[in-house]
Amino acid sequence: MTTTTPAPAAADTRIRRGRGIPTSALGAAGFAGVILLLELLPRAGVVDARFLPPFSDMAAALTEQLASPAFWDALAATLRGWATGLAIAMTAGVAAGIVIGSVPALRAATASTIEFLRPIPSVALIPLAVLLFGTDMRSTLLLVVYASFWQVLVQVLYGVTDVDPIARDTARSYRFSLWRQVRTVLWPTALPYVMTGFRLAAAVALILEVTGELIIGSPGLGNAIAVAKSSGAVDTMYALVIVTGVIGVGVNLAARFTERRVLRWHPSIRREVAS
Amino acid sequence: MTTSIRRAARRLLLIAGLPAVLVTAWWLATANSTNFYWPPLRTILETFGPTWLEGKLTTDVVPSLARLGVGYVAALALGSGLGVAIGSSKTLRATVEPVLEFFRAIPPPVLVPILILFAGIGDGMKVLVIVSGAIWPILLNTVEGVRSIDEVLRDTAACYRFRTRTRLTTLILRGASPQIMAGARQALSIAIILMVISEMFAASNGLGFTIIQFQRSFALPQMWSGIILLGLIGVALSLLFRLVENRVLAWYFGQRNTQHSGA
Questions:
Q1: What ipTM did this prediction achieve?
Q2: What percent of chain B stands above pLDDT 90?
Q3: Which domain CATH number covers B144?
Q4: Is residue B247 part of a domain?
Q5: How many domains does chain A have?
């Protein structure tokens, strides 16, 4: 259960002291090294340039892509599918998690079912989705929602169990209404867990979105990669893969930023800022 | 005596109750189904045996699982090995960590078309796909785990002049194992996804290939039985993983429990 505690991201923010050279410079050097390698290996003939074009070709293909409206359409379709799926999974996961988590009988009765359904690989649903919705955006959405829903639900369930019994009893003694109990006692306790679930779900949703587009053929970057591959445009394919990587980094950073923003009152984040 | 029996019965009811209700509901709802897409559960289960247990078990299921096993173990070995090396050097870590974060952020399935270029569509490609996707969570978690090993333990090991080998097994790998296992758990679900995807993309055998074939030829009960089989494999592997984790991390869970109850 080590993955499920809302790990404070302390490690990323602590200032690291290298030997005189700032870490950002070293990181940039790392990137420069990879780019240089990507340029030199095919040029020197170590790797077949048909399989791995030099980096400059990828960059040229990327600029070409950035100028084409079809690329922006695909990007928008991917981001839209990702955001829609994530929003549905978050809403459903949080609602179901709070209801199941706060009723002990319900929680006990559903535990085995959740444990069973969760590890079912979402890609198993691909054939079903294709039959139901064809190559429509909805078939990819089904995968995205299924995969990210469990991430959220499980975290919310952990969060709801974490409520301080004294706080809960106090709220009950003061005859807080049910809604008020949820809002003032349960929600603040569960929020760090909800945000962990959000962070995990955001990454998983992106993977499944692109996978769905790639395999099913619904519109988006994944589909664009499949098209570039089948038309032999290898440098375009690499350019698009780089774009998905950039989106992935963006999603991770945005999720982490949201987490810190929403939890800025929480001791785990405050301690980090103070140190 | 009777209370313990009653308690056991209650536990069994809680564990098996809802699944039984759901399966029965599925069974009844589709019992007389003539809908092409939702065949009766009875038909699905009847086709399960003939479809998977006779013949396909050795031609499709076993090759899939073998590729999964080889890829996952290779990712585990490479990931934790490189992770220990990177985590032990500050400069190296600062240099390569941003690059690794970038590679981790690339959705692994988009690497399938690239790896097909290099390795064709044989077993090698599929194992490579699994390794290339599953390695990142293990690698980055190992780096983090090695980095966060207690300074005092590190100094103690240095004072006692542990040999490199002893230091590696008793201090570094041991100390980092909770994080390594956390990474390995994420990697397992990614590896299963990639096993299926690599076969759906281009293959001549395997689970993913067969299920897509069933879907394309509109063999619906067979397709459903394949979905169920994939689900069962997912569940079985996650149970197996928990078993291994409980063994490997027994010391860690024990320590955490005592700390929690002590505090």
A1: 0.79
A2: 13
A3: 1.10.3720.10
A4: no
A5: 1
